[in-house]
Amino acid sequence: MLYPELFKQLEAVRWNMDSDIPWDQFDASKLSDEQAQTIKMNAITEWSALPATEMFLRDNREDSDFSAF
Prior knowledge:
This protein is an all-alpha fold.
């Protein structure tokens, strides 16, 4: 079956925020307030993408061309 193998391959190259970032080397004092605010806004935008996609597909389920993005 193709899907399980494809899933394994894709998961193998996906990064892991916990283990791929050397958090013990992070120095918060080097981060400006503007940078911190930008990071926060980017994180909020990414977080909201999941429910936004779900709502988009729900609201456009009758239009297969429009919702096949």
